[in-house]
Amino acid sequence: MPGVRIPVDPRTTWELPAPGAMPRTADLEPLVTRVLAPNPSPMTLDGTNTYLVGAPGSGQVVLVDPGPDDPAHLAAVEAALAARDARCVAVLVTHHHGDHAEAALPWGARFDAPVAAADARVAGPEGRVLAPGERLALAGTALDVVPTPGHTADHLAFRLESGAVLVGDHVLGRGTSVVTHPEGDVLAYLASLRRVHDLGPSALYCGHGPELTEDPGAVLDFYRAHRAFRESQLLAAMVRGAGTVDELVADVYAGVPREVWPAAAQSTRATLAKLAADGHVVMDGDRVRLP
Ligand SMILES: [Zn+2]
After folding, report:
1. Which of 171, 185, 201, 256 is most exposed by smallest CB count within 10 Å?
2. Domain 10-225 adopts which CATH fold?
3. CA of residue 50 to ligand 1 center, whole Å
4. 99: CA distance to ligand 1 center in Å?
5. Boundaries of CATH 1.10.10.10 in the chain?
6. Alpha helix (H) residue ranges in 133-260
7. pLDDT digits (tens, 9 = 90+) for 5-60
8. Distance 199 CA to ligand 1 centre (A)
């Protein structure tokens, strides 16, 4: 598409740890300790980030996104609890994907802590379904429940008293996130980016990858521009003759590892659904054409 520039990722000039170089455990601010799970992959980047949130000296923390039910990860989380001299009083989950939610019920039972999420299946029979906008008073601090649908329908972020926002997979520490299909929704995703931007976050603590502290608003702006750029790339690929989802992925994602093409296909389908709703493309199963 003429006139659409490749958006520049502001993080390219930031000093972020190289992939694989994040510390296993890090105190990000007095309220927050992060523990990195040992599950790196092209989709989970360095691995899943588990967050311990609590007022120093309260003796309590909330665990956000326990991650995979992995014994080494559990040992690292328990060591971080001991270092904070705190016990876990609740388990919160940003969304239902297993790399964030798998350990929620078993660890909730182990810590005798309730599990809370937007999805009743994640919260379990004894858990709590969180409502958008509610404020949770826990562990000597407060967490605001921020609805952020898009990556998945049930996705939540949590705003801390410090102004930092735990964003799950809504925003990643490196690269961009995936809008899943058919569950995800590009329009909802864009509105969620705007919602988090409007909070004026002091930092973004992501589900994967390093913390984003230098200019969180610039990253959110880049994410919105990136979605618009993907739309223009898909339309340009169709002008060049791509007529199926697979052909579009092969064209637009030629430069990324094939391992992430299945995820790219989901994002492509989600974007095509938006373009079709806008009347810019016509979908017929896996076939797609310009109107
Ligand atoms: Zn994830």
Report:
1. 256
2. Metallo-beta-lactamase; Chain A (3.60.15)
3. 11
4. 5
5. 227-289
6. 186-198, 216-239, 245-252
7. 789 999 999 999 999 999 999 999 999 999 999 999 988 999 999 999 999 999 99
8. 22
